[in-house]
Amino acid sequence: MENLHIEATKYTPEIDLNAEKNMLHFSGKSYPENTFDFYQPIIAWISAYFQEETKRETVVEMDIIYFNSSSSKLFFDLFDILEEARQNGQKITVHWLYDAENENALEAGEDFKEDFESLDFELIEK
Amino acid sequence: MKSSQDHLIDELQNFMDGDLERFQALGKKIIKDFKRQQRIMEQSDRRQRQEYDQLQEKLLEVKALNLEIEETQKEVVFTMGAIGESRSKETGNHVKRVAGYSKILALASGMDETEAEMLKQASPMHDIGKVTIPDAILNKPGKLDAQEFEKMKEHAVLGYEMLKHSNRALLQMAATVAHEHHEKYDGSGYPRGLKGEAIHIYGRITAIADVFDALGSNRIYKKAWEDERIFALFRSERGKHFDPVLVDLFFNHINEILLVRDAYRDIFNQSNQSGTAL
Ligand SMILES: [Fe+2]
Ligand SMILES: [Fe+2]
Q1: Which residue segment(s) compose the domain that B85 sits in?
Q2: Position B67 in a domain
Q3: Which of B29, B130, B151, B153 is catalytic?
Q4: B225 in a domain, yes or no?
Q5: For A89-112, how does the pLDDT look when each residue is reduced to its tens digit (9 = 90+)?
Q6: CB distance B40–A108 less than 8 Å?
Q7: Is-above-0.90 flag for pTM?
Q8: Could you tell me if B37 lies within 8 Å of chain A, comparing CB atoms?
């Protein structure tokens, strides 16, 4: 399937969804004007990616330094998709990157990790 | 009649009867979602509070910094003026008085508070060009000969040259003041011999303020003039040396002007009052 790359803007993160490298990468800030519209194609791409029959080892890299509550909701939705894929036998590792000084990013990462016990969720200090 | 709530209950009951398994799955999902929303909201509240606290802190910092910048600018500008004056053995109070008179005249001539305050800060720099004039000329006890006077006159242009390169509005204003404070309304001044309104209002105001203060102060080579003698000169120079409108405004506001003079009186036989240790 086609890779999807979205450049960062002032309000949205850089997103790189790479089906060859099996790498889903998010970095930057996330407080779009319309969060659901912004993430709709991304969620769609990821759902399609995991619906493919191929078994692969996927790394999801989240390097989000700031996000609003709707983005938080969307990340929950995203992790739901990952969890489901995991249950269908996909191998997935989530790398949650945070800056030592960014307490909020760490807290959010801890929260997601706790909520998605079945996911291989690693908190990594940058 | 059934209420709309009854309808909902009926619907729910039908759903439960029809497919309990699906209903439970959906219920679980909804409950999970509710809990998530709640957590997101709590997180967001906590973060919002933090962010707002930080914002307020930063705002206070910015305010303090702005004040610091303003005060620094005022001090630097005032010190520059005092340096110019100190070479010619003026006191720091001279520039303070000139500053005060200039603001009074600026407001009286219709400038707004911001511009008048700026002129108050810029006018003390009128003689900054004097830093380049040799001591022998600057502090010569007697009258300057023609050649020395020509040299002395250069301080207007030199001050302008020193200040004109700045992009700061305040220093631009100070450049104008330095350049034009020796111009005379009838065109007989220097360095350019500008006439009337061709002399910038900043220059015309500073000229009156500076001369009034110079005449009223004791200097090495002369005693201070009596007020009446100064006033007489101002009346006779109305439209000659000075802008006639400004001379009228000067007399209209003479009480305020004299208050400034009293507030920054030179005190001799005591340590210098300038406070700038120059
Ligand atoms: Fe001068
Ligand atoms: Fe002066």
Answers
A1: 77-272
A2: no
A3: B130
A4: yes
A5: 999 999 999 999 998 899 999 999
A6: no
A7: no
A8: yes
Whether residue B130 lies in the annotated active site: yes
Neighboring chain B residues of A114 at a CB cutoff of 8 Å = none
Ligand approaching nearest to the C-alpha of B210:
2
Q: Taking CB atoms and an 8 Å limit, are A69 and B39 in contact across chains?
A: no
**CATH code that applies to domain A4-48+56-125:** 3.30.750
Segment B34-90, tens digit of pLDDT: 888 898 998 889 889 999 999 999 999 999 999 999 888 888 888 887 787 777 666
Residues of B in contact with A111 (CB under 8 A): 39, 43
Inspect the interface and report whether the beta carbons of A104 and B50 lie closer than 8 Å: yes
Whichever domain contains B181, its CATH number is: 1.10.3210.10
DSSP A25-36: EEEEEE--TTHH
Closest-CA distance of chain A to residue B44, Å = 6
Q: Are A40 and A55 in contact (CB under 8 A)?
A: no
What is the value of ipTM here, to two decimals? 0.80
Q: Is residue B44 part of a domain?
A: no
Long-range contacts of B105-114 (CB under 8 A, 24+ apart): B105/B205, B105/B208, B105/B209, B105/B246, B105/B249, B105/B250, B105/B253, B106/B205, B108/B249, B108/B252, B108/B253, B109/B201, B109/B205, B109/B245, B109/B246, B109/B249, B111/B201
Find chain A residues with C-beta within 8 A of B43's C-beta.
Answer: 69, 72, 107-108, 111
